[in-house]
Amino acid sequence: MTPARWPPGWVRAAETRALLAALAAAGIEARFVGGAVRDSLLGRPSRAIDDIDIATPAPPQAVIDALAAADIRTVPTGLAHGTVTAIFAAARVPRRFEITTLRRDVATDGRHAVVAFDADWAGDAARRDFTINAIYLAPDGTLFDPVGGRDDIKARRVRFVGDPAQRLVEDVLRLLRYYRFEARFGSGAGDPAARAACRDAIPRLPTLSPERVWRELSGLLAAPAPLRAVELMREDGVLAAILPEADRIDRLAALLALRVADPLLRLAALVSVDGAGAAALAERLRLSRAERDRLAGLAPPWPVDPAGDERTQRRALYRLGAGRYRDLALLLAAEGAIERPRLRRMVAWAAEWTEPVFPIDGHDVAALGIPEGPEVGRLLAVVRRWWEDGDFTAGRDDCLARLRAAAGR
Fold first, then answer.
1. Residues near 195 by Cβ (< 8 Å), separated by ≥ 6?
2. Residues 400, 335 share a domain
């Protein structure tokens, strides 16, 4: 299964040719490997591939010297693991090339490895995570597939390289990566050996950092069709271990049917939490402040009346903002509380919404002789409520009149 146009465009790109020429001038052999090769075999456009992994028998210092001789900038991003990054920031399509020496694991602690740089190509392939990530591409377009990755791509099968249990002993993060890869590249059936090893490794999941857990989970939820992988995680006990709040797979399925691709909105549909529970979940997963606030704002009870008239919807739009209003409408539809025609109308209202500007501010209150303090905020709130109740139609003069009345002037 090789695309008709081969090798892919990113191999033929000027910066790639320059890098390969610099290595070849120093007598260094290089082959592409990993996601760039896998995604190209799957037909992903070349312009969408910006992180490219290269494997080489040469030690890191030899790579650095060869690229320096060609005035190619390098960053020693992982010398302990044999990795040097070459950066072509000025290229038409900016790309990063991670060049790593062939290696084998000497010792592992379940997350990180001590490596030796004396492996051959077969040994390097044997230590990789999944067969579809262990396909090598030579600069001339020749493919080397020592562990059957091309057949697995064709069959939409995600398999660990070698013994799944050993791969998880080396790095338990691969447990979550397995389900993320299943969501993106699998058929949905799952590999029995991989799933059995993942079930056995669940007790080691607490050793992972929350940030790593969320990165893998959000990557899974961002997949075009993540539902079956989530169901596999539930069946295997993984979902309960990392996300015990996730008991609304039915609501996630309904949201996916609405073609919603947003991973955080998908998370909100999947979990059963109120505002406090959402805040606790965000803290546990170490979400960013923006993610935390958004997740809490998507938790029930949802402050939208889908049956209300247009005036009611405009008030909800003003108070919630168009983005949150739209998200809540989608969640209500996934819950079964809104029919499709009504949802389309609410989404259209959100898209068309222009927030009205409240015509007065604190300076207008001060102009009445009212000193700075809580009374200023109270009076503005009184007038703002009246302005909202009037469907935002009152102009500045009417609002000032209402302010004077509220202030007893």
1. 232, 236
2. no
Considering the domain architecture, whether residues 144 and 81 belong to the same structural domain is answered as yes
For residue 347, the Cα-to-chain-centroid distance in whole angstroms is 24
- How many domains is the chain built from? 3
First-to-last C-alpha distance (Å) of the chain: 81
CA distance 168 to 353: 50
Residue 320 and residue 303 in contact, taking contact as beta carbons nearer than 8 Å:
yes
Strands (E), 36-183: 51-56, 74-78, 83-88, 95-101, 104-108, 113-116, 136-137, 143-144
Spatial CB neighbours of 214, under 8 Å, sequence gap ≥ 6: 285, 286, 287
- Are 325 and 398 within one domain? no
Question: Tokens 């993942």 sit at which residue?
Answer: 198
At residue 298, φ and ψ (nearest 5 deg) are -100, 0
The token pair at 259 is 């073609």
Question: What integer pLDDT is reported at residue 398 of this predicted model?
Answer: 97
pLDDT (tens digit per residue) in 111-135: 566 677 778 999 999 999 999 999 9
Domain residue limits at 321: 310-352
How far apart CA 214 and CA 284 sit, in angstroms, is 9
Q: Categorise residue 308: left if φ over 0, alpha if ψ from -120 to 50, beta otherwise.
A: beta
Q: For 190-203, what is the mean pLDDT?
A: 98
Helix/strand/coil for 344? helix
Helix segments in 92-209, DSSP class H: 121-126, 149-155, 164-170, 173-185, 192-201
What number of residues does the chain have? 409
Residue 20 and residue 52 in one domain: yes
